[in-house]
Amino acid sequence: MEDWVVFRTWVGDLTQMIAEATVGQTRFHEYSDGVASVMTESIMAVTVFATIMGTILALLWIERKFFARIMDRRGATMALRSLWVGEGGQHADWYDDLPFGTGKPIRWLNNLLNEKAGNASDYETVHRTKDRGYHGVWWLLPGMIQNVADGMKFMTKEWMVPAKADKFIFEVAPFIIITSTVMIFAFIPLSSNIYSANPELSLLFMMAIFGIAPFGVFFAGWSSNNKYTLLGGIRSAAQLTAYEIPLLVTILSLAVISGSLNIIEIAEFQITSGVWNIFLLPLGAALFLITMVAEVERIPFDMPEAEAELVEGWWTEYGGMRWGLMFASEYLRCYAACLLFAIFFLGAWEMPFGDTITGIIPNQDLILGAIGVGLIGLAIGLRSEFPVLLAPVPLVFISVIPPTAWLLFKAWFMFAIFVWIRASLHRIRSDQILEFGWRWLLPLSLVNLAIAFWLRLSIWQGGEWPLLIPGLITAIALILFIILGMDEDKSAMEGRTRPYSVYTKSKGPASPRSHDR
Amino acid sequence: MGPQHPMTHGLWTLKVKVDGETVVDTVPDLGYIHRGVEKICESRDFTKITTYCDRLCYASANTWAHSYIYAAEDLLEVEVPARAEHIRVIAVELQRIASHLMWLGAFCPDIGNLTAFVWCLREREMMMDLLQELGGSRLHYNFPRIGGVKRDLPIGFAMRARAKLNLFLDRIQETEQMLDESTVFLVRTQGVGYAKPEEMVNHGVTGPNVRAGGVNYDIRWAHPYSVYDELDWDVSVERPSIKGADCYDRYRVRVDEMRQSARMCLDALDKMPGGAETHYSEGDPMILTKARERAEEGKTGFHHFEDSRGESMFYLAGGGEQRGKHPYRISIRSPMFITIPYAARCMIGHKVADIPAIMGSFDPCIGETDR
Description:
The complex is a heterodimer.
Chain A: H1 7-21, H2 32-71, H3 79-84, H4 104-117, H5 127-130, H6 144-156, H7 167-184, H8 202-210, H9 213-223, H10 227-258, H11 263-273, H12 277-280, H13 282-295, H14 320-345, H15 354-360, H16 367-383, H17 392-397, H18 403-424, H19 430-459, H20 468-486, H21 490-495
Chain B: E1 13-19, E2 22-29, H1 37-41, H2 50-54, H3 61-76, H4 82-110, H5 115-135, E3 144-145, E4 148-149, H6 157-180, H7 183-189, H8 197-203, H9 208-211, H10 219-222, H11 247-271, H12 285-297, E5 300-307, E6 310-317, E7 329-333, H13 335-346, H14 354-361, H15 366-370
């Protein structure tokens, strides 16, 4: 499908025009191209930054709400679902107030959800424990303003430096972390036409910048002069050696399969060759996901900040807005990781089944026509008793969604998976991640690299992929996934042989103060 | 680590000597919240001590109150109606479920998972509601009385209790699946914090911790009090590996014990005899008269009790001259006071990251430890 939002071209034309009209008319007219170029780059940088900063609210929202949904918390945290499933005996009816009967499909969905997954219980007595509905105002998207309140709180807090800290490094470390994090987004394209910078080797450049922040963490941990922060900082450095190499080898396999070290070309290759990388390199996708979770230091790989034993790890001593910005930069890194996963493996900004869907519409250039058809469908669907008739409507509208939105949707989806991982896993130990990294991730990433070489050299003949091979690979990956998911050594569990007992360290020497006396 | 540290689950200090991230030596330092409950009780009526016993452990108030009540009844030679005994069993076992849920909810964040915490507290809420119906408040119930319980079961309690317990039995499966089928959880708990059964017996460790080591010792089964021998239940004992009980065993035994407690409650609801005789009326002169008699004889009252965390014991000495209503001396055996030093020993040789896992798996409660 054609990318109709050629934003960079529009901005380029506009700045060219402005430069021609202003600088071009003066005696500096030979610089007008340069001025236009500077203006274009600035506008693009600001656009990308603003888009990322604006849409990161969605991430925070997912982190709060989806997490709360999994955890089955009570109260306003349940917002999203309780908007339509009126709980605690009170059925939501806000959709009846919507104009033109647009609430009808929502009512249908509401009834369906209440029937299939609702909280209607046979026991009235357990209703209280199940009553976790949101009784506030639905159009406020409950919980969104909380982020603003948090920001205000951070800004009004005092900035303190511990007396025994190395003041200079302690002050510098947050800047290293925050600036390197923001710099990542210079190289992440939001579509083939919306990007801030596009050097030839942008992949290498970006991964180099991605690896800077752990050094900032290490500096922060060491300079705080505190036992917990020191342990956290050293853990961060130790962890870095375990996942960074598999991560880079996995990314190398992407460069191999696409034949380029440029992020936009890797993304475009998936679109032109017709198959997303996740269907070619499912192992690589899994490795990338795991190493990226480690890179952004989320559970199960958040040993540097392990709050149970290290209080808050390396940022125990930080407070105020510096802490807030570092926390924000953690989410920015998460966002970058999700965007990269979407770009590298999920076909970047391509619409899923885009060709099929746009093929339905006879003349896909006529966007207005598509909207007209959609409106007619909407009208018919609303007049009828069956909201199912509305199904083709989104199909029509879907074809005019800009590619950037698809990329962001995919990134949010990936972040939901990140949250899911966080909600269901525990924190592993630092010796275990080292063992896992060196014994499993590194060999597997080399296998993945070999697969990429094989695919590129002997399967791909230029043009599109033969569809048999990705289908086969995906089927094998799915079967392996299911088998590994079912892998439960019942006899070992029964016999208490402890399949996961990895106690390798011998006991330390008992001191005279030991309790053996 | 401590006295204010996420690992401590209370107020105490664990002095840890580390070599890199490996624990070389540990010294527990207890006593931050010593309130002198035993001394306070010496100036209180026998009937007024229950509230102090409630406050020995906020997570398991009912078991401690009952622990005292049985000792006091031993001293005062009070007989309890069968219906009251059934109600007591229900109250204690509901409290045991709530306490173990609190434990599981605190143990999982120790190794990094917040979901299990919220799920466990959600289920604990049901138990709290039931106990609130019995005792009137949500944390410190002051439910048992010498010679019975505060009041009879409320109308409809049996129906609500059955519904909630059945729902709990459903839901605990969900939590169990999330933990047992997660390799990360197994990696963090299996092979961590081995406690040898013979060492535990020598140190006096009791309760779920020692049953995780394969020692079949449950007071409710070994020296049955109340109506435990009439109910349908099994002692939950783990079969540990040759090296001893690890954190995973201690997790399993508590989950199994919650099931058994629910089973016990359901069975007690079925077998409960009718009638309204649940207690002696308040301020019954008989108790106080008897107390004076017993005090003159200089006799003592004593009871083992299976607390949520192990074997609690109350030792009461009668009032003596001029003090017939008050105990002359009261002594409390706290299971965690004995277990915490042993748990601290188990950590030697493990990583710093294992300290919360091992300490959490022993279920420390500092209120009862410091008394």
